[in-house]
Amino acid sequence: MAVSSIAQLPKANENFKSDDENDYYYNKAKPKRIGGIELGDVTPHNIKLLRKLNQVVFPVTYNDKFYKDVLEAGELAKLAYYNDIVVGAVCCRIDNSENMRRLYIMTLGCLAPYRRLGIGTKMLLHVLEYAKNHRKFDAIFLHVQINNESAINFYKKFGFEIVETKQNYYKRIEPADAHVLQKTLHSCNANDEE
Amino acid sequence: MSPSQPLPAKENALFKKILKCYEHKQYKNGLKFAKQILSNPKFAEHGETLAMKGLTLNCLGRKEEAYDYVRRGLRNDLTSHVCWHVYGLLQRSDHKYDEAIKCYRNALKWDKDNIQILRDLSLLQIQMRDLEGYRDTRYTLFMLRPTQRASWIGFAMAYHLLKDYQVAAKILEEFRKTSSTNQNKNVHGLNNNKGTDYEQSELLLYQVMVYKEGGYYQEALDHLNKYGDSEICDKLAVHEYKAELLLLLNRNKEAVKVIRDNLIARNCENRLYYTYLEQALGLTEDNEEQRLKMYTDYQNLYPKSQMPFRLPLNFVNNPVKFKSLADFYLKRSLRKGQPALFRDLKPLYSSECEKIHSKYSFKIAIIEDLMHTYRNNLKRYGSFETDEQTWGSEDATCILFVNYYLAQHYDYMKKFDKALMYVNEALRHTPTLIELYVIKAKIYKHAGNIEEAVGCMDEAQSLDSADRYLNSKCAKYLLRANRVSEAEEMCSKFTREGVCAGDNLNEMQCMWFQSEAALAYQRLNNWGEALKKCIEIDRHFAEITEDQFDFHTYCMRKMTLRSYVGLLRLEDVLKSHPFYFRAAKIAIEVYLRLYDKPLGDSDVSENINTSNITPSELKKLISKQRKAKKKASAAAANTDQSHHNSTNEKNSDKASSESEIVGEKLIPSKLERPDDPLGEAIKFLKPLQLLARERIETHLLAFEIYYRKGKILLMLQSLKRAIKIDDNCPTLLRQLVLFYDFLEKHKAELSPPVKEVIDLEIKSLIGTENVCSALELNDRFSQRNKNSLIHRLESSKLIAILQKDKDAARKNASNVINDLEKLNSVNIEVCAQMMQSVRNGEFGAVDESVIEAFRSRCHQMFPLATHFMTSSEKKLHLMNNFDKESAVNHSTVETSDGQIGEE
């Protein structure tokens, strides 16, 4: 059942693909990070920035309910600021399907020019930290389009694994299939307690 | 007590209780005691008791009764200083200061040494700026109470304000001698802490101020040297005064030392200090190199500062040097991501600079060039340079701010398509940088498309709705688009809840909003509302003047004398503020319009400009207006009621004094039907003539009023003043022609002395050559400015007015249109004006094809401006933007919250 609700809010990944601006340097080489990264809350006052960001970063559109829920999500939804400009965002929710209590990353994305600066890492670490401090979670998982290799590699670095592939997960984009990436948390918690 | 109506001991005790109750604001009790005295038939007409009863009633908000009792009391006892004093206090609470002064003077006749009355009188005198009277009163007070500090200070201040610095300084010095010994003893005895005696410190600094203003620089400096370290707490003021005084005394070496070690070392960003320093070092315009060297020294001394790097950009005129300085400065700012960079550099762009130094414009070119180089290199190599070693060395935000700068740069240069290109590129890069939407809005505004501008600004506002700056900006743009009620709604996000936003903004004296709203109403031909806003602004100024009253006692007590003198001087020229100027200008223009075309009883002033709206649109508009009106009147009724309730509750002591100043209620429908519009206009004009003499508009407006009043000498005066400011101003030239025409028509009626004055002056006004008619004069002015569109427009209008034959006017207008490409001063505003005049038939029936040709040529020149679009072009434009917008957002599905769809 939870799967169907996920299907309405498809696709969670860090979109590493560049768009039409091939003449930009940031498409060719790794930029140097100079500015600082901060995370900030999502509030009714700045929620439109989140919309704007998701509109640009993801090929899918999220509905109003998504944004309504995000406002209630507290630490599970964060904006990432680079040099005081909003350039990324992460939105999660708690998922109780399949007899597990898991953290589901709905979206995690960053504007193209600001990729590979550690912004995604900062956001993901925040989510992992949250999961660690609230020990009730069994795992963290997300969906990613099967051709999005950079995103898959990114998550693998943090111990995520492909546990399943869903056919025709996405409705309006190609390829429509999605991997489910998951990181189990029990071991990590146990390690910490030792 | 009054000798004429003495009270026996018991009643006298009661009367004293009334006074005490008044002082302690126990008004109800006071009335009780008054009743006890007055209920005794023997004392029913006791003047002083009646007066006090009235005064107490006044404090309870029962003004009419108060006046009755106080007057009755006074009539019963004309020789009582109490009755006169009370009457004065009552008048004062009613803000009738002149009357109050008279009452106090009468009171002093019967008790000339009454300290309380003298003090009250002095307050009114300073408020009314009766400085001589003030000095006399302070003198009396001084003689009566020579031991009090306030007596000395007030006495000295009176002389200071009268510019008798010598006497003021003497009094202060005498006082310092007596007081500093006393005070020091006091201070030492009590808490042994001299360092915190701020009042003494302020007094000493005030003395320095008086010395300095009087030109006693050496004395001032000695004073500072003597007390600066030990007794004055405000060290910054000591150093600043010292630097100034040393400069005034031409002791430049010492000045340099103070500026360098005490001022710039404290704050290396204060521009003024560098001006001082240049002066002290004797650096002038011509020795560019030495000046630059001075700044380079400070750059090395304070490598993180901004001023020493920014200021040389102003004066360095060697292109090579300028380029390297600018290069360094720009890169640093771009790396920091300073959004205000363009604003910081804008003075280098200003036309004023170009006028003074014709070579200045090369700076714009260099900056533009540098920015383009940065942009290319950043895009290609991620660096400001092309050198491979630096590749990728710059932050991702650098390119963003380069594009942001270029957008503003081209907006300033009026190349709006380029500006839009850069801002859109920046938006593609980072669509979450809100400043970009603000700039985009600004570009559209300058390009003549206010609706599009509102859309962008609304988007900016929606992205951070907790930002009041963006909220206000959006409201302002809505007002520019004449959407007043929406603007109020926008503001309501930040105004007090439960109160109508417009009322709250008025209460907060939010004048930028009110003057923009007045302009919007003026454009909408809604004269009543426009006047209402102007009068509200006028009342704010009255209120600010009024608020001054509390400071007369407060500042003296707290010894903040320097700030107090500053306040008094500010209040003297309060109405020179641009807010007042704008409001007054609108009000005068509206009154002139209402004089020219008075409204009938049933006219609704919201005449819609129907010329360029289709009938169906018009219908919609009218029904919309009707609805809005209904809503507004309902809301007004509501607030009226709630207002009533709330005032009734707290009515007791505050309401009476506060509500006075609010004045009578402003009803738009009444305001737009004034009995004497020109008289009302003159009320707004007077302060401008006094305080805004340097602005030509003041005198142009004055002429318009006096022309309609037929006051020939005042017309002459306005023209003479205007001519001194700009003798080729198109409006002025029109007025000169009208004046000449007026003279021709009324020559016979002029009295000999007037005629003599006119004959004497006319030559200097219109030049020495003989002119035989107003038309000929117009022709001459037009010839003089045959390359200026605005001048040609004005003179065409005149031809239409002066010449009965419309044919000539039409021909002339057509000629202007034909010459369009050859003319200068061709901008959106003037072209739109021209278009409006042609369409209104001011030049007779101009051929439709000519109008269309004019429109399409303007449209070519200003493709974004809505003024010159046909309705189908407008639609097309909207569609195009829709496409562009969605391209920017890459959005595939959602548009519901975009700005594109317009209702």
Q: Which chain pair shows the most residues in contact?
A: A-B, 38 and 37 residues
Rough shape of chain A?
Answer: globular
Instruction: State the shape of chain B.
Output: globular
CATH topology of chain A: Aminopeptidase
Report the β-strand fraction of chain B as a percent range: under 5%
List the domain count of chain A as a whole number: 1
In the CATH scheme, the class of chain A would be: Alpha Beta
Fraction of residues in helix of chain B: over 70%
Rg for CA atoms of chain A: 16 Å
Strand order of the largest sheet of chain A: 1-2-3-4-5-7-6
Q: What is the correct CATH architecture of chain A?
A: 3-Layer(aba) Sandwich
Q: What is the end-to-end distance of chain B?
A: 76 Å
What's the β-strand tally of chain B? 0
Which CATH C-level class of the domain at 1-112 in chain B is it?
A: Mainly Alpha
Give the helix/strand class of chain B: mainly alpha
Determine the fraction of residues in helical runs of chain A and give it as a percent range: 25-40%
Largest sheet of chain B: none
Keywords (chain A): Acyltransferase, Cytoplasm, Transferase
GO molecular function, one term (chain A): protein N-terminal-methionine acetyltransferase activity
EC number (chain A): 2.3.1.258
Subcellular location (chain A): Cytoplasm
Characterise the protein shown here.
The complex is a heterodimer of chains A (194) and B (903). Chain A has helices at 2-8, 47-57, 64-72, 119-133, 149-157, 186-193; strands at residues 37-41, 77-82, 85-95, 102-110, 139-145, 161-166, 178-184. Chain A has one domain (2-193): 3-Layer(aba) Sandwich (Aminopeptidase), CATH 3.40.630.30. Chain A has a seven-stranded mixed β-sheet, sandwiched between helices. With 194 residues, chain A is α+β, with helices and mostly antiparallel strands. Chain B has a domain at 1-112: Serine Threonine Protein Phosphatase 5, Tetratricopeptide repeat, CATH 1.25.40. The longest helix of chain B has 48 residues, at 615-662. Chain B is mainly α. In chain B, 73% of the residues lie in helices and 0% in strands. The interface between A and B is large, with 38 and 37 residues.
